[in-house]
Amino acid sequence: MDTPTTSLPARLLRVDVAAEILGVKRSTAYEEIRLGRLRTVQIGRSRRIPTEYVEEYIDLLKRESD
Length: 66
What we know:
Blueprint: E1 12-13, H1 15-22, H2 26-34, E2 41-43, E3 46-50, H3 51-65
Helix pairs in contact: 1-2
């Protein structure tokens, strides 16, 4: 029996992937997480960034630039 494959976009991103999407270095993403500006969720021992948190962070940057 074949396993169905889906092409759904990832909704939980690794920090390095989120950093790439945001166009920042991985170290910058971790610094923003440390400062509480970019939120994450904990899954086991790793951190993931829900796509809506990436959008929140972009909105924060927009507000700060006004």
